[in-house]
Write a structure and sequence with these properties.
The structure is a single chain. This protein is an all-alpha fold. It contains 8 helices and no strands. The chain has helices at residues 5-17, 21-33, 35-66, 68-91, 107-116, 118-131, 138-163, 170-193. The longest helix has 32 residues, at 35-66. The mean pLDDT is 84. This is LysE family translocator.
Length: 194
């Protein structure tokens, strides 16, 4: 095992399991739609994050460093989109879980979210800057990240599924969704403004 693999695994675990916009949306999706309906968004979200790691490692990271305006525009677009998603969650805050008022998170939306998520790009730049080495090529970093991210994001969906019964009480659901919307907003803008 490479000397950098174990530290990278720990980094990927923390980056994947920590609360972030996609994990919060998967939590809400799991509560509303169940685990089976969450599989496609989980696979797409984790695959997109691993693809960002790969693309940054193959040179896109350098391009973004050379063109800070492009990086800033991507960050603002991501924060605005996440704000819109938070608004959707807030707007449906009191609706019963079994009512599908809004379109559920699909695979394309989950993947797109990762592509515009500032947290994913900062994580990918850190991964490549710290862990990429001849003994640990970029494609292996992306693959290991994917293998770690999948069970981490699935845990968020399971947390949502497990909370579904508790959320059958309308007041709890209202506060749960309001809390998710606020945390989603904070996670989107904290990265951008921090």
């Amino acid at each position: 095992m490479s000397q950098t693999l174990l530290p990278f695994i720990l980094f990927a675990l923390v980056a994947s399991i920590s609360p972030g916009p996609t994990n919060l949306l998967i939590l809400a999706h799991g509560a509303r739609q169940g685990l089976r309906a969450s599989v496609a968004p989980i696979l797409a979200g984790c695959g997109a994050a691993a693809a960002v790691v790969l693309l940054v490692g193959l040179g896109l990271g350098e391009l973004l460093v050379r063109h800070p305006l492009a990086q800033q525009l991507m960050s603002w677009a991501g924060a605005l989109w996440l704000s819109w998603l938070a608004w959707r969650i807030l707007r449906s805050a009191g609706q019963p879980l079994y009512i599908n008022a809004d379109k559920p998170l699909d695979a394309l939306s989950a993947a797109s979210l990762q592509v515009v998520n500032p947290k994913v790009w900062m994580m990918a730049v850190a991964v490549i800057g710290v862990f990429a080495a001849p003994a640990l090529p970029v494609w292996q970093l992306a693959l290991v990240f994917l293998l770690i991210a999948l069970p981490c994001m699935t845990a968020w969906a399971l947390l949502g599924v497990g909370s579904a019964r508790w959320l059958q009480v309308p007041a709890r659901l209202l506060w749960f969704n309001r809390g998710l919307a606020v945390v989603l907003l904070v996670s989107a803008w904290a990265t951008l403004l921090g």
